[in-house]
Design brief:
The chain is globular, with a radius of gyration of 24 Å. It is built from 13 helices and 24 strands. Helix 12 (about 395-410) runs parallel beside helix 13 (about 435-460). It is α/β, with parallel strands linked by helices. The protein binds 5'-deoxyadenosine and iron/sulfur cluster. The site of iron/sulfur cluster has 10 residues, from helix 6.
Length: about 525
């Protein structure tokens, strides 16, 4: 695969970006430049830059066709490199990152590494980071502070920063300037380069920076280390929606869908291996297939094909209301192994705010979609994402969000205070809403959601429901926990052997965020 490698133009300044705001390059000395890689020395540290993030490039949406590769292999000289060595990966953020971590674990294990929970024992530590809000980033910088001590005690330790933060210009420069003890920085588009980057970092003893701003091709046969009975499956990568507050289109690149036959084959294989639940992943799964030039095949078509596969439960994350078409509503209405819990981020109930967020739907069209879903998908349970305190949000506009929450009757929502992300349009919008007002709005919204969650749980009292038993409850080993089709958490007393099976439970008590039940032995379904 050919890739354009970018490097900072330190010498000429021509066409170069202004790094000075992040990084003092005055003392930097370029010591080598070859094959697009620049090696320079600064503050006693040698840094090899293979390619750096660039927002302008990351934002570009070209017409180039995405190639699909089926021939990935660990480079021969790295196949036993990890033998006798241990790895630790810390994951921040969304399911997409969790799944990327499974891929990195797969790659490391194919190199002979084994996992450890104890960082002090690890030979390689990776932080798979999230950039969605500022507090996610603060956590990572805090963690880097702790890791510096480990690195001092054990100089052979390899430290890597990857994930969405690595795709940000400011972050990479801050790490190079202030956390020079890091060994590798790589992004979301070149995970498969991990073995090669380890080699470069180990043998050159340099900080290796390789972040691709233009998305890579799709690499189909990367190894994945999955655990438990539930699996994540990417169906597409990237996002082209460019909601004005969101960093994802920059960090994850343009929309690229996996070929249906590859997704179907992966689900068939997961069924063969006995997985009980699959969650299909994409930043906007409803845009699936829009990038195919040779196929007229949408997310609805995919779901219609997947429901014939012998995986007991199929879910998906996350939807965009704008692209949620009638075909999909109709297919979800067929039920079976397609679960009736649907996550449908609304972000705001105010048309003015939705417009400034560039969400490309209105309160009315969202409610119309909800009406269709309720009419078509039996017992549908809806959850959502909401941002409060978007720049300039008025009390009236916030109240419109509250009224929409009531009108839809969400059982659950992820709620956030707006966090400005450098480089996004909303970051330069005037914001006159004081922080205390934003916090107070979040509190009111969460209170309403707690009430609705409790009411939704109360409605289940006395019913017998099927749950997939996921494990022991965190607080009590005699208590097992599992989830209903509608994704509600249920605790009940039962034998450990039930973990990984479907059982029926009669609901006997309800709380705000979970429900309690009794195991109904005779109806245990051995699916
Ligand atoms: N500030 C606050 N919340 C955000 N989200 C995305 N970007 C931001 C931001 N800048 C929220 C949205 C999205 C969820 C994954 O994170 O609600 O749906
Ligand atoms: Fe971000 Fe989702 Fe909007 Fe894409 S659709 S820009 S991932 S909020």
């Amino acid at each position: 695969m050919t890739k354009e490698n970018r490097s900072p133009d330190l010498k000429s300044g021509k066409g170069a970006k202004d790094y000075s705001k992040y990084f003092d390059f005055s003392g930097a000395k370029v010591i080598a430049e070859e094959e697009g890689k620049t090696t320079f020395r600064i503050k006693g540290r040698t840094i090899q830059v293979n390619s750096q993030p660039d927002y302008r490039e990351g934002k570009r949406r070209g017409k180039e066709e995405i190639e699909v590769h089926y021939d990935f292999a660990i480079p021969e000289d790295m196949r036993t490199f990890g033998e006798g060595k241990l790895y630790s990966i810390t994951t921040y953020g969304c399911q997409m990152n969790e799944h990327d971590t499974e891929t990195m674990k797969g790659l490391l294990e194919q190199m002979g590494y084994r996992s450890t929970e104890d960082r002090n024992q690890a030979d390689i530590i990776l932080l798979n980071t999230c950039a969605i809000r500022e507090n996610a980033e603060d956590k990572v910088f805090g963690e880097l502070g702790h890791l510096k001590h480990l690195k001092t005690e054990k100089p052979g330790l390899l430290l890597g920063v990857c994930g969405c933060m690595s795709q940000e210009e400011g972050v990479v420069n801050r790490i190079m300037a202030k956390h020079g003890f890091v060994d590798m920085i790589f992004g979301t588009h070149n995970l498969h380069r991990l073995p090669a980057l380890i080699k470069e970092a180990v043998f050159s003893k340099e900080l290796v920076v390789e972040v691709w701003s233009k998305e890579g091709d799709i690499i189909e046969n990367l190894p994945k280390k999955r655990e438990g009975m539930r699996a994540w499956v990417n169906i597409m990568y990237g996002c082209d929606k460019f909601c004005t507050y969101c960093i994802v289109p920059f960090t994850r690149g343009k929309e690229r869908s996996r070929r249906p036959e590859d997704v179907i084959a992966e689900l068939r294989e997961l069924a063969r291996q006995g997985f009980k639940e699959v969650t299909l992943l994409g930043q906007n799964v409803n845009a699936y297939g829009k990038d195919f030039t040779d196929l007229d095949y949408t997310f609805g078509d995919l779901m219609d094909d997947l429901r014939k596969i012998d995986i007991p439960r199929i879910r998906f994350m996350t939807s965009h209301p704008r692209d949620f078409d009638d075909k999909l509503v109709q297919v979800l209405g067929k039920g079976g192994n397609l679960m009736e819990s649907i996550h449908l981020p609304v972000q705001s109930g105010s048309n003015a705010i939705l417009k400034r967020m560039s969400r490309k739907y209105s309160r009315e069209t969202y409610l119309e979609l909800v009406r269709k879903l309720k009419a078509t998908v039996k017992d549908v349970v809806l959850s959502t994402d909401i941002i409060v305190g978007f720049p300039g949000e008025t009390e009236q506009q916030f109240e419109e969000t509250m009224s929409l929450v009531r009108e839809v009757g969400f059982d659950m929502a992820y709620t956030f205070i707006y966090s400005p992300r450098e480089g996004t349009p909303a970051a330069s919008m005037e914001d006159n809403v004081p922080a205390e007002v934003k916090s107070e709005r979040l509190r009111r919204l969460n209170e309403l959601l707690s009430e609705q969650s409790r009411a939704g749980n109360d409605r289940m009292m006395g019913r017998t429901v099927e749950i997939l038993v996921e494990g022991e409850s965190k607080n009590n080993a005699n208590v097992l926990s599992g989830r209903t089709r509608s994704n509600k958490l249920v605790h009940f007393e039962g034998q450990k052997e039930l973990i990984g099976t479907f059982v029926h439970v009669k609901i006997t008590d309800t709380k705000t965020w979970y429900i309690k039940g009794e195991y109904v032995a005779e109806t245990a379904a051995a699916l």
